[in-house]
Structure formats: C-alpha cells, structure tokens
Amino acid sequence: MLEADGLTKEFSSPTGTVTALRNVSFSAEPGEFLAVRGPSGCGKTTLMMILGALQRPTSGKLRIEGQDPYQLAPEARSRFRAERIGFVFQEFYLVPYLSVLENILAPSLAKAHPDPPGRARALIERFHLQDRLTHVPSALSTGERQRVALARALFHQPKLLLADEPTGNLDPENAEIVLTYLADFAHSGGTVLMVTHHADAAGYAKHILEMEQGAVVSTAAPQG
Ligand SMILES: Nc1ncnc2c1ncn2[C@@H]1O[C@H](COP(=O)(O)OP(=O)(O)OP(=O)(O)O)[C@@H](O)[C@H]1O
Ligand SMILES: [Mg+2]
Questions:
Q1: Backbone φ and ψ of 150, nearest 5°
Q2: At CA 166, angle to CA 77 and CA 139, rounded to 5?
Q3: Tell me: the pLDDT tens digits for 83-136?
Q4: What is the mean pLDDT of residues 142-165?
Q5: What would you measure as the largest C-alpha separation in the chain, in angstroms?
Q6: Which residue's CA lies nearest to atom 25 of ligand 1?
C-alpha cells in the first residue's frame, strides 16, 4: 500500500540547510494503523506532507499502491490525492467562509459520491457535529474544527488516511470517538498514519514509528 524508501527532505534557510527528514524507510499494508511520535521539530509534519503527495522529497522514493505520485504531472497528482488520500492537517485548513456542512462536502467536488449529503450526515453524527452544521469555522471550538477536518478527510473514502495530531484538542470522550473511528477505518482495510503525543492514542495503533531529528529511530509495537 505505502512504501517509503530513503525519504530525505532538506530546506534552505537563512542560516543554512535544515535536514528535516533523514533517510526514512518503512512500509504499511492495507489495514495497518501506525502512530508517529517524537519531539517537536523532529520532522513528523514534514513526513506526513511528503506521504500525502503534498511536498516533494529532496531524495528517496515514495510508492502508494505501487505508484510514485511525484512522477505524476501536478494535475494528475492532485487527482491521485483526491482519489486515494485523506489528510488532516495540524492546523486544519478549513475554508473560513464555508459552513461545517459545506466544508465536509468540499471533497465531493473532486470525486463524485453517490449520496454526498447522506455520507456527510453519517460522519457529522459520528463526530457529534449535528448542532453545528451552519456554523463557519471561526464560530467553532478548536476541538469542533478538528472533528470537521477529520470528517472532511474521510468523506471521499480514501485508502490512506494521514492525520497530524487528530486528537490534540479533543476531550477524552471525543478523542475516543475519533480513535475508535480510525481503528475501524483500518479494520475495514484502510491504512492510517497518525501523529500523536498521547500515550493512550498510540495504544490504538499496531505499530509506532519513533522519530528523532528527522530519522525514524525505532519501530515498536505499543505497550500494554
Ligand atoms: N518550509 C520550511 N523551511 C525551513 N525549515 C522548515 C520548513 N518546514 C519545516 N522546517 C524545519 O524542519 C524541521 C521539522 O519540522 P516539522 O514541522 O516536520 O516538525 P514536527 O515534528 O511536525 O514538529 P511539531 O511536533 O512541533 O509539529 C524543523 O526544524 C522545522 O523548523
Ligand atoms: Mg508538526
């Protein structure tokens, strides 16, 4: 499903070159739920952006379902993303002038779905957003915005879900709803990579990628 081979990302900055990602290799099968952990600045978001076909690596190879999205022309790469990948950004990136319902429905513009309102409604109920449908993001709490971002990422039924701290702003009850959903998503054959700092969030995942200074330093099964 997902194969990362020697992914490296360098950024140039006024003080020199920053190596945000160093030679990261791993693979994930359909149905696998991986957590990514490590201190701030270790390269977690950079890794997610590269895996999400959003940021080209400086070197290394990525394959998603056997295809390297960076070998596609920009338009084909966007289509590839729209069809296969769901992404929950650390900063959410909701469209500020669209309502909750419209934000969740936005991906249906890229991929026709047989019953967009029905599918949106199921996600809305699952994530307890039914009383917020007409609100714009600025009228939502951070945790509500986070759940809208997740519903939007799941709307088009991606094969691969990349979630950067999807429970970071949630109370324990909502965190559990989200984690259970992600575990179900993996159970039904999806692949999930989730950045998290929460020990119990990592407990839902089958494997943990521990990162340090841009490198994956260990891959462990969660404790307990
Ligand atoms: N566009 C950029 N230009 C220059 N440096 C960058 C850029 N994006 C990230 N970096 C640097 O790369 C390193 C990794 O950043 P990244 O955002 O991937 O960390 P992170 O593990 O997600 O951190 P956090 O837990 O705080 O979200 C950091 O040192 C960061 O300053
Ligand atoms: Mg980050």
A1: -70, -45
A2: 100
A3: 999 999 888 889 999 999 999 988 776 566 677 788 889 999 999 999 999 999
A4: 92
A5: 51
A6: 40
Protein residue closest via CA to atom 24 of ligand 1? 40
Ligand nearest to the CA of 47: 1
Contacts with 149 (C-beta within 8 Å, 6 or more apart), sequence order: 88, 89, 92, 93, 94, 166
Fill in the amino acid letter for 189: G
* Ligand 1 lining (C-beta closer than 6 Å): 11, 13, 18, 20, 40-46, 90
Mean pLDDT of 67-79: 95
Which structural domains are found in the chain, ordered by start? Answer: 2-220 (3.40.50.300)
Q: Ligand 1: which of 11, 50, 193 to mutate, judged by most atoms within 8 Å of the beta carbon?
A: 11
Atom 28 in ligand 1: which residue has the minimum CA distance? Answer: 41
Helix (H) or strand (E) holding 187: helix 172-187
What is the rounded average pLDDT for all residues in the chain? 91
Ligand 2 center to residue 76 CA distance, Å? 27
